[in-house]
Fold this sequence. Notes:
Elements: H1 2-5, E1 11-12, E2 19-20, H2 30-38, E3 46-50, H3 56-64, E4 69-74, H4 77-89, E5 96-100, H5 106-109, E6 115-120, H6 136-142, H7 149-159, E7 160-170, H8 175-184, E8 187-196, E9 205-212, E10 219-220, E11 224-225, H9 235-240
Parallel strand pairs: 3-4, 3-6, 4-5, 6-7, 8-10, 8-11
Antiparallel strand pairs: 1-2, 7-9, 8-9
Amino acid sequence: xxxxxxxPVFEPLWPGGPVFAxxxxxxxxxxxxxxxxxxxxxxxxxxxxxxxxxGAIALLLLCRAPRLHMTGLELLPEAAALAERNMAExxxxxxxxxxxxxxxxxxxxxxxxxxxxxAANPPYFPLGSGPLPADPARxxxxxxxxxxxxxxxxxxxxxCRTGGSFSLVHRPERLSELLCxxxxxxxxxxxxxxxxxxxxAAPGLVLVESRRxxxxxxxxxxxxxxxxxxxxxxxxxxxxxxxxxxx
Length: 247
């Protein structure tokens, strides 16, 4: 009975969409879904998700871009194994690869410039900013116990080819630090979008796309508003979650 309780449950992300089982330490959140929608795969053929957990961002990108091959890099073996299962359950084994490893040692795992597209939904909180869960896996998903923001940007810069993109989601209160870390690593911020729960509300998330070796010039996109004043989901939020036909 104990083994059955830990058996992954694969459920469709939307009617007729891919099936997905969540990692216990890092359940699928709105931030990952919004990031996957924000990313522009374009003509990219090789992508990587840094700290992929159970592979949600890679899975969503593969559904959007038929020519894309995604690699997931994950520190925790259990989460990496679940990411592999998620790819297999959707018939995506030939278009994906899950690597168990530490992104801080990415130079030992991949040649420089191996990817056209790099993505990450990193832990949001620096060490010392507040208490973290006692469970090490949950703590690593929430706080920078295994990787700092600067280390993440340095890894992305190593992995991304010149002209390729690095996109991530983070907290607005760390935006200045994030932009500085990106430019210091040679990743020029190119697109930025704030995410707000309601019209006029303070943003709760920020989406940023940077480009390896890009020229200066940052486009500030209109806010992504998740719900109207009445609390009803916004049309864009419904599109992102494939709820256009829902009543």
